[in-house]
Design a protein that fits this description.
Elements: E1 27-32, E2 35-38, E3 42-46, H1 53-56, E4 59-70, E5 81-83, E6 86-94, E7 96-101, E8 106-110, E9 113-118, E10 123-128, H2 131-136, E11 138-148, E12 159-163, E13 169-172, E14 178-184, E15 186-187, E16 190-191, E17 200-207, E18 212-216, E19 223-229, E20 231-234, E21 239-242, E22 245-249, E23 254-259, E24 270-277, E25 285-287, E26 290-292, H3 295-306
Manganese (II) ion binds at residues 81, 83, 88, 125.
Length: 317
């Protein structure tokens, strides 16, 4: 898996052992993501399907893109489409996605890069594989997360952050058995590069077979783990989880994740997306690409889109 890595994990800063008084978060629920299709027909796993919205807050939606091995000519993206009221975070491990938006944001991500688009008051964007990968086909694997914006920031100006893999903070577990990539927010005292309106923490973590990680987690944040690949256990109760499953943790100070001794053929290690944030506790009204607080605001977003007020497709396209 071509995510950002290091030759010698033991050279990285290490996560400190939890205090003896620390409470490990209990596992509240484990769900299995159904598959679906997004954009012009690329396969996804709907990571949050069947999870209570209150447990997800401040997150709205998450798709695992692939993992899919395309034949030549098959790779697909999205058409131009609008968003308002939240932020999209796209993390690509295998394959490349090119992004372009009506606010002038854009870039190409792959190999552990992240793009962070704040739709705010409104933006149009397109996400598509580059022509040479459409021609050749190949492996595509990534994640897309929707982070809600608080009422006070829903209409902020759009913003685009290009977070190349080299900017990600890397940490090691105490025994070197887990590599923690901090993409956004603060984890175990280390700050990731992503800047967010809603306080969150986000990591892609690799746990070696047989290794166990106990990670400090902001007690004010919710805590979710999505298994991108491999198998292992979560919690001190060692509940088994596998690729395509989402874990909702209860309250506490730390999260425990362990890699199974024997992994499946597709992955050498347990690969997890760990995320949490400060719940907004505001009403959510969403339809299609808009996430607002009231139904009237969603209708207004559709009207603004139809009137061309969410931006226009750049002439160069
Ligand atoms: Mn989009």
């Amino acid at each position: 898996m071509p995510a950002v890595t290091v030759d010698n994990i033991l050279t990285l800063p290490r996560v400190e052992a939890p205090a003896l008084t620390a409470v490990d978060r209990p596992v509240r629920a484990v769900t299995t993501a159904p598959t679906g299709y997004e954009g012009e027909g690329f396969p996804v796993h709907r990571a949050f399907a069947g999870v209570d919205m209150a447990a997800l807050d401040p997150f709205i939606h998450m798709d695992q893109i692939g993992e899919v091995n395309y034949a030549p000519g098959e790779p697909k993206g999205t058409a131009w489409h609008p968003h308002r009221g939240f932020e999209t975070v796209t993390y690509m491990i295998d394959g490349i996605l090119e992004h372009q938006d009506s606010n002038g944001g854009g870039g190409s991500i792959g190999g552990g890069d992240t793009q962070w688009m704040t739709a705010g008051g409104g933006v149009l964007h397109i996400e598509a594989p580059p022509e040479h990968l459409v021609m050749s086909g190949g492996l595509f694997h990534g994640m897309q997360l929707w982070v809600n914006l608080p009422r006070s920031s829903k209409m902020v100006a759009p913003r685009y952050q290009d977070i190349t893999g080299s900017k990600i903070a890397l940490l090691s577990s105490q025994d070197g058995g887990a590599l923690i990539r901090v993409i956004a927010g603060e984890i175990a005292g280390h700050q990731g590069p992503g800047s967010t309106y809603t306080p969150i923490a986000l990591s892609h973590t690799t746990v070696a077979p047989g290794a166990s990680l106990t990670l400090p987690w902001n007690p004010d944040f919710n805590a979710l783990v999505y298994v991108m690949a491999g198998r292992g256990t979560v919690g001190t109760e060692r509940r088994p989880v596998h690729s395509g499953q989402t874990v909702v943790f209860g309250k506490g100070d730390t999260i425990t994740i362990a890699g199974a001794d024997t992994q499946d053929q597709r992955s050498e290690s347990l690969e997890v997306f760990i995320l949490g944030g400060k719940p907004l506790r505001e009403p959510v009204a969403m339809a299609g690409p808009f996430v607002m607080n009231t139904k009237a605001e969603v209708i207004e977003a559709f009207e603004d889109f139809q009137a061309g007020r969410l931006g226009s497709i750049p002439a160069s396209h």
